[in-house]
Design goal:
alpha/beta; seven-stranded parallel sheet; binds NADP nicotinamide-adenine-dinucleotide phosphate
Length: 254
Amino acid sequence: MTQLPRIPSFSLAGKTALVTGASSGIGQGCAVALAEAGAHVVCAARGVEKLNETVAALGAKGLSAEAVSLDQNDLEAVEDLIGARSFDIVVNSAGLARHAPAIETTPADYDAVMGLNLRAAYFLSAYAAKAMMTKGKAGSIIHISSQMGHVGGVDRAVYCASKHGLEGMVKAMAIEWGKQSIRINTICPTFIKTPLTASTFENPERRAWIEDKIKLGRIGEVEDIMGAVLYLASDASALVTGTSMLIDGGWTAD
Ligand SMILES: NC(=O)c1ccc[n+]([C@@H]2O[C@H](COP(=O)([O-])OP(=O)(O)OC[C@H]3O[C@@H](n4cnc5c(N)ncnc54)[C@H](OP(=O)(O)O)[C@@H]3O)[C@@H](O)[C@H]2O)c1
């Protein structure tokens, strides 16, 4: 009888995952995806109320989750959390945008965007990988980057800088950590309906720009990201590192 190949497992049973930005939008979707696949999910964000609501809703579905209040710009707090736990999977979805023409960007906006989207992402990755190495365990680190990590966008010079930086960072870290079986990748969504993008969709000019660029003809939903995070977190992607999964409806195809 022909020996058929076996499909790798998408199960995350027995795994512990940290999901940042888990109280809203894409991060909340990622928390659900990982918990549905069997992981225990530590949900992090600053606002405790929304975080607790998310964890309660996960619990009501019979899923395993807990809430941890965390400001990711507080690197000491991030390092403490990582050191105190044993994460197999880290999904970093906390991020922010301050859109403005490049000549109007203030240093404060620059620092806020680069601080969370790149500086905090950098050290979260480093602390997580170091902890995995110390414990001798394999791991998967996934950053929610953006299609704007691959192309430019109107009023998005700082945001694009932070996400292009994230893409380069992930490639370099993948080279360093591959031998220890620590994988690191990004997911790059197009425009997804979340609180972050609400103001963009209220602008008819911007909405027309978005709908014109997305070849599949619709704006993304959080659900569009959930399969990708499960794939990158699980053994199904065991040979995938240092790369970027574009979920952009064809935005970057031309
Ligand atoms: N929505 C899109 O169209 C889109 C497209 C491409 C990429 N992305 C990226 O996807 C990620 C998530 O976006 P989203 O649309 O889901 O955003 P969102 O709905 O605004 O959620 C952001 C999450 O990050 C948390 N957060 C913000 N600042 C934080 C901080 N300093 N420390 C810890 N947590 C913090 C927020 O909770 P608290 O405020 O309570 O802390 C919230 O849980 C971002 O990196 C974004 O750049 C989004």
